[in-house]
């Protein structure tokens, strides 16, 4: 069983936590997420032009790049994380250009060597799968696709084809970190997705608090929180880990408990 | 590429690819809308009423056909090939941008969209978009880099006069690339009712194709006019390239005329070994703003800031069809520095009484070099894609003149 599959097979919803690589002391921030109970880590690869992100993650990208973070640094962070945390699944999340710059095979092999379990690429839809998908599948790395409120029934099979690990449901048609979707619409969307795939469904975008996460965890297999954690990196800099751990702990507790209510 | 295609005019393929370039690299939220746009465009293209409405507006609102002009004094000054101009700077709003905006707003109305957004660099596309929005009574929001807002004040004021809301974008370097990111962010959050009028032949499929088609009015007219006036086709076409919409509009109808050579002119800024905006000369293939194309970028795929004295050429990418035309060798590409463009700007003012925009001044600089190397009976046709009123402050500053 892959690390990602195992993370969603614990009999309770999973907490998926995102932070940007190279924004502050990333190793310490990642350790804080694990200590706080995160089940899956999404490590953001900084990009100069993060078109789908709101101000929080845009600024994290700029801070990271401003500090000189390179692709080699991101891979080194992943490698070191894997050595410290052999069981916690790690997913790289980012945009196409940094991933394909040296060729998809190079990236897939480098990610594999770094112990990465999955990749989320915001701007490679299934129609452009050739740009990265075959290389990742060759290396046994999960390609986690995004489904959104605009993904209609006719299109959904194309999104699911070639997806593995889990499906990331983007709960709002918008950018990261801002709006919050109504829980009712999330419930029906997740039900629609679950009718079409056996993959776990994790829901993200606009989830900032333990309360919001708990509500989503009652209907989904996982909850993704990103901007609220990234905001802590901005606010607290070198002292971010303790704040990240505290927020992660409150969210993971709420998410993990949600099942017990419904089970 | 090994073999020569039967036609250079049948790209993109059905998946929106020009060879290895183009495609649809956008967030999943936008994908259904991109397909909806493609379907709507196919239907519009097949609908004679759509073409008739486009043609009517081109003639009576934009002022087409634009003249084909023999630049006699410039030709004499250069002492080589005959230089002819396609006068797209005489269009309503002063540039070729309006051709595309008319086409796209008709498409938006057909699709039932009620709000328009656009990005702009120099402001020409923003002004053209604000103009068609005023003409058709649709609310208009223009994203513009804060740096460009301050250096293109006359165009910002024009957009506001036309009723548009101008949103200064402060992320990144606050120029065109960042304005496009912000427009895409806005679009993702307002997909239901909003149409994004992209200003150049770039972005996700079908934009490069539809912008090219709307701008091809330039080349179609020029081809007919040239045949009618001289009984022959030009030997060389020259056009400036930022994203490349005026160039592809001029080139496309001639692509299968094997004897017509073509030259695209990128902005070499301070020089190709310094800061510039020449994606083909100094970039590598990559993915940005919905398409795969040549980009100014570092070894990690981070996008570099472009520089050109011309805000309209100040973009680190290029339309994907140009990337393909470069690789196939059908079109030759070169680059012209800020200083060379400034010289050409002044040359045209004094020889022809035409104040060109800084964008076509790059093309004129390349024409000046080539004309001298060609026979006197050879013909060069270049598109004067914009007029220079907007640029006089930039030029004055570069020339050390206080205004």
Q: How many extended strands of chain B? A: 14
Shape, principal axes of CA atoms of chain B: globular
Q: If you compute it from the alpha carbons, what radius of gyration of chain B comes out, rounded to the nearest whole angstrom?
A: 19 Å
Global mean pLDDT of chain B: 96
Order of helices and strands of chain A: HEHEHHEHHEHEEHEHEHEHH
What's the quaternary structure here? Answer: heterodimer
- The helicity of chain B comes to 40-55%
- What share of residues of chain A is helical? 40-55%
Proportion of strand residues of chain A: 5-15%
The count of helical stretches of chain A stands at: 12
Number of helical segments with 4 or more residues of chain B: 16
Mean pLDDT of chain A: 95
The helix-and-strand class of chain B reads alpha/beta
Explain what this protein looks like in three dimensions:
The complex is a heterodimer of chains A (263) and B (403). Chain A is of the alpha/beta class and 263 residues long. Chain A is 46% helix and 14% strand. Chain A has twelve helices and nine strands. Chain A has a nine-stranded parallel sheet with strand order 5-4-3-2-1-9-8-7-6. In chain A, strand 6, helix 8 and strand 7 form a beta-alpha-beta unit. The longest helix of chain A is centred in the last third of the chain and has 23 residues. Chain B is an alpha/beta fold and 403 residues long. Chain B is built from 16 helices and 14 strands. In chain B, helix 4 packs across helix 9. The radius of gyration of chain B is 19 Å and the shape is globular. The interface between A and B is large, with 44 and 38 residues.
């Amino acid at each position: 069983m892959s690390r990602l599959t195992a993370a969603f097979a614990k009999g309770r919803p999973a907490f998926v936590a995102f932070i940007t690589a190279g924004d502050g002391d990333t190793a310490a921030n990642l350790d804080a997420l694990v200590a706080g109970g995160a089940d899956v880590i999404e490590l953001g690869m900084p990009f100069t032009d993060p078109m789908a992100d709101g101000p929080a993650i845009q600024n994290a990208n700029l801070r990271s790049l401003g500090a000189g973070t390179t692709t080699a640094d991101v891979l080194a962070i992943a490698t070191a994380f894997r050595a410290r945390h052999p069981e916690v699944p790690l997913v790289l999340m980012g945009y196409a250009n940094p991933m394909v710059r040296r060729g998809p095979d190079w990236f897939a092999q480098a990610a594999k060597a770094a112990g990465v379990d999955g990749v989320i690429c915001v701007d490679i839809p299934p129609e452009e799968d050739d740009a990265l998908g075959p290389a990742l599948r060759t290396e046994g790395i999960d390609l986690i696709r995004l489904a959104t409120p605009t993904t209609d029934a006719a299109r959904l099979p194309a999104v699911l084809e070639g997806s593995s690990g889990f499906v990331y449901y983007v709960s709002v048609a918008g950018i990261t970190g801002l709006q919050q979707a109504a829980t009712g619409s999330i419930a029906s969307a997740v039900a629609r997705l679950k009718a079409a795939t056996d993959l776990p469904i994790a829901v993200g975008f606009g989830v900032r608090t333990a309360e919001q996460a708990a509500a989503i965890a009652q209907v989904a297999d996982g909850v993704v929180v990103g901007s609220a954690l990234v905001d802590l990196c901005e606010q607290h800099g070198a002292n971010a880990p303790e704040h990240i751990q505290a927020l992660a702990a409150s969210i993971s507790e709420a998410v993990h408990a949600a099942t017990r209510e419904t089970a | 590429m090994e073999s020569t295609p039967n036609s250079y005019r049948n790209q993109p393929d059905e998946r929106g690819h020009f060879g290895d370039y183009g495609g649809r690299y956008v967030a999943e939220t936008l994908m259904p809308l991109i397909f909806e746009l493609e379907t709507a465009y196919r239907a519009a293209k097949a609908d004679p009423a759509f073409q008739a409405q486009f043609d009517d507006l081109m003639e009576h609102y934009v002022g087409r056909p634009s003249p084909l002009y023999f630049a006699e004094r410039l030709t004499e000054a250069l002492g080589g090939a005959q230089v002819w101009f396609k006068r797209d700077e005489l269009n309503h709003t002063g540039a070729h941008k309006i051709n595309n905006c008319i086409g796209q707003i008709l498409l938006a109305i057909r699709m039932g969209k009620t709000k328009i957004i656009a990005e702009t660099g120099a402001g020409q596309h923003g002004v053209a978009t604000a103009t068609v929005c005023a003409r058709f009574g649709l609310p208009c929001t223009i994203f513009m880099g804060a740096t460009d807002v301050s250096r293109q004040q006359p165009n910002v004021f024009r957009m506001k006069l036309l009723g548009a809301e101008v949103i200064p974008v402060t992320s990144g370097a606050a120029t065109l690339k960042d304005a496009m990111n912000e427009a895409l962010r806005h679009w993702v959050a307002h997909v239901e009712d909003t149409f994004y009028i992209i200003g150049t032949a770039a972005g996700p499929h079908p934009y490069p194709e539809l912008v090219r088609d709307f701008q091809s009015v330039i080349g179609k007219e020029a081809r007919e006019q040239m045949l009618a006036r001289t009984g022959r086709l030009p030997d060389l076409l020259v056009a400036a390239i930022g994203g490349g919409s005026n160039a592809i509009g001029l080139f496309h109808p001639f692509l299968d005329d094997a004897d017509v050579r073509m030259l695209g002119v990128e902005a070499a800024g301070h020089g190709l070994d310094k800061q510039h905006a020449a994606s083909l000369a100094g970039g590598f293939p990559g993915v940005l703003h919905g398409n795969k194309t040549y980009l100014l970028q570092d070894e990690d795929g981070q996008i570099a800031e472009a520089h050109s004295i011309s805000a309209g050429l100040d973009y680190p990418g290029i339309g994907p069809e140009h990337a393909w035309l470069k690789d196939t060798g059908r079109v030759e590409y070169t680059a012209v520095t800020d200083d060379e463009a400034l010289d050409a700007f002044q040359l045209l003012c004094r020889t022809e009484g035409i104040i060109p925009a800084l964008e076509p001044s790059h093309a004129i600089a390349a024409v000046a070099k080539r004309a001298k190397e060609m026979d006197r009976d050879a013909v060069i046709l270049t598109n004067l894609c914009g007029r220079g009123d907007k640029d006089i402050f930039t030029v004055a500053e570069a020339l050390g003149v206080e205004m």
